[in-house]
Design brief:
Number of strands: 11
CATH class of the largest domain: Alpha Beta
Number of domains: 3
Radius of gyration: 22 Å
Largest sheet: 5 strands, mixed
Low-confidence stretches: none
Mean pLDDT: 97
Bound molecules: flavin mononucleotide, iron/sulfur cluster
């Protein structure tokens, strides 16, 4: 049985209102944090082993310690609530249920970082969440947890909610900053990294919703308690949005380190496959991670149980592993067509490429075109290797990771399901 840190009170009626949230221990971490040394909070987060939940899994405490505190410029905290990755819907679910927990996390994190302005960049389509966050912010402010001189500590903080305008690329942190500055969402060349030169050229920390929401529990219960959950460098709990051919799609909070098999097959989580179906593949971390065929889903290539950790999912690297990514877990059974699925993802990446770099701008279009003809029975055998060749020319040759995200699913689909691509050529489409 996995414990609940983030979703413990998610189903309490009225938990999205200040009084009920407060009755359930809400904002206790702010009371504790404002009496602490900000650097002690950073240390606590380091000790917890918390890693960024937006996709890359970088240590949050280390990221926070990179923030340029010597600069005379203001510092900013930016929460990434853009969540546009196909298959990923955990932040949306979380913010709908617990807007106050995100606000609480923003206050404690801002205090630790010495920022007096925090932004939440929310996917614009989530208009009801924007409203819920605005209400939560106003309620917290009226209760003295936000605004000037929070709880008499002398610390001031304002939180602003900024809606995005429907571009997936604005979830990439530097494109997000451009967009927040009122410009077109073009990713920036790094370095400099945001910790040195971020929003308006000032030191900035950017964290995912789930990352920031984990901070209150860490401050109330201590970094070691968080680190005690999970395995190795994958500590704490993780929100996973599960979809595809399973009995119980939804958002689940898991202890890091449960097996993939338990996650897919147990009634506590996905509830197993639909009757009479067999597992074909899993996509463990959103549309941008390599696809894993059934024989590598529950076990690694070395025959070890595959675990829901950053390390175990990556076991085998790009040859026989995948990534935790954003926790968008998609299950495909024997009725799913890998070529169609890969084509569908490629359409998305082509559409969402910002067009700044030619390998991504042109390459994503070529991938879509070649996959379209394979899926529609017009492909040739050499198209299969062409897909790999195009992908290899995109991967690692672009300004941001959208290019990689477009390439990895294609390369892994061909690697693990070549016979299905060949069958599309021989049989002029899907059987
Ligand atoms: C194309 C692209 C889209 C991204 N979309 C998101 C997103 O919607 N939400 C998010 O938190 N991170 C997203 N990221 C990752 C962010 O760039 C960044 O790593 C993350 O917000 C950092 O927060 P974390 O350290 O808490 O994970 C995206 C990255 C790329 C390359
Ligand atoms: S990789 Fe693609 S999305 Fe990223 S900057 Fe280049 S063209 Fe834009």
């Amino acid at each position: 049985m996995s414990r609940k840190i983030l979703l413990e009170h998610a189903d309490v009626p009225g938990i999205d209102t200040f009084p009920i949230y407060r009755q359930h221990g809400g904002y206790d971490s702010v009371e504790k944090a404002v009496k602490m040394d900000p650097m002690a909070i950073v240390e606590e987060v380091k000790t917890s082993g918390l890693r960024g939940r937006g996709g890359a899994g970088f240590s949050t405490g280390i990221k926070w310690s990179f923030l340029d505190r010597k600069s005379n410029n203001p510092r900013y905290l930016v929460c990434n609530a853009d969540e546009g990755e196909p298959g990923t819907f955990k932040d949306r679910y979380f913010m709908e249920k617990l807007p106050h927990l995100l606000v609480e996390g923003l206050i404690v994190s801002s205090f630790a970082l010495g920022t007096h302005t925090a932004y939440v960049y929310v996917r614009g389509e989530f208009f009801w969440i924007i409203e819920a966050l605005e209400v939560a912010i106003a309620e917290a402010k009226a209760a003295g947890f936000l605004g000037k001189n929070i709880l008499g500590s002398g610390f001031d903080l304002e939180i602003y909610v900024h809606p995005g305008a429907g571009a997936y690329i604005c979830g990439e942190e530097s494109a997000l900053l451009e967009s927040l500055e009122g410009k077109k969402g073009y990713p920036r060349i790094k370095p400099p990294f945001p910790a040195i030169s971020g929003l308006f050229g000032c030191p900035t920390v950017i964290n995912n919703v789930e990352t920031i929401a984990a901070v209150p529990w860490i401050i109330v219960n201590g970094g070691p308690a968080y680190a005690a959950i999970g395995i190795g460098r994958s500590t704490g709990t993780k929100l996973i949005s599960a979809s595809g051919n399973i009995k119980k799609p939804g958002v689940y909070e898991i202890d890091m380190g449960i097996t993939v098999e338990e996650f897919v097959m147990s009634d506590e989580f996905c509830g197993g496959l639909l009757e009479g179906r067999t597992l074909k593949a899993i996509i463990a971390g959103g549309s941008s991670v390599p696809i894993l065929p059934a024989h590598l889903a529950f076990k690694t290539a070395a025959g070890e149980p595959r675990l829901m950790t950053y390390e175990s999912l990556f076991d085998g690297g790009f040859a026989s592993g995948t990534m935790m990514g954003s926790g968008g877990f998609i299950v495909l059974d024997n009725t799913a067509c890998i070529v169609r699925n890969t084509w569908n993802f490629s359409r998305f990446y082509h559409h969402e490429s910002c067009g700044q770099c030619s390998p991504c701008r042109e390459g994503t279009g070529w991938l879509e075109k070649v996959l379209h003809r394979l899926e529609h029975g017009e492909g040739k055998m050499h198209d299969i290797d062409l897909l790999v060749s195009i992908s290899k020319k995109i991967e690692g040759h672009t300004i941001c990771a959208l290019g990689d995200a477009a390439a990895w699913p294609v390369v892994s689909a061909v690697l693990h399901f070549r016979e299905e691509f060949e069958s599309h050529v021989k049989n002029r489409g899907c059987l």
